[in-house]
Design goal:
This protein folds into two domains: about 80 residues, Orthogonal Bundle (Rna Polymerase Sigma Factor, Chain: A); about 70 residues, Orthogonal Bundle (Arc Repressor Mutant, subunit A). The protein is built from nine helices and no strands.
Amino acid sequence: MSKPSASVLAPTTVEVSPEPTPSELLLRVFTDLRDELVSTLWYLLGNRDDAQDVAQEAFLRCWRHQDSLPDIQNLRAWIFRIGLNAAKDLQRSAWHRRVKPLLGADVMPMVDATPPPTQLLEEQEAMMQLRAALMDLRPEEKEVFLLRQNGDLTYEQIAELHNRPVGTVKTQMRSALQKLRKVLN
């Protein structure tokens, strides 16, 4: 019988990756959510530059409170809540109240495709109608719609985010969808 080699007898070490630090976790999750957050803020604020500034402000606020990460059960909802609060702070500021966003190309980018001219005109008209309808929604309806569609949050997450009952959130979403359907039909 042959003796086992030394490599077989040597204990194998399995490297276990350490738990990410709160700052690493926050950075990773925020990076993954950034585009969704900016998109949601863009619709909410009506301006891409403001949305990017608010997303940056939201990251800074999250960074300052990273010590509370172990207590947070839904990190995605927490980040979106901070982003929405930062957007509301901007909307309340005197500077933002004086400046009104234009419903133009800055509100929603157009897709770089070359459909027939008539189709392009119809799509542009429908997009303008949709933008106007979005801007006419009540703030609560707009937030629920954007968080559901752009933020991809569940009704339960949105309810938790706003400290509202799930039924209220669903009613606000239904109301927003009914108003948008009227405009598009």
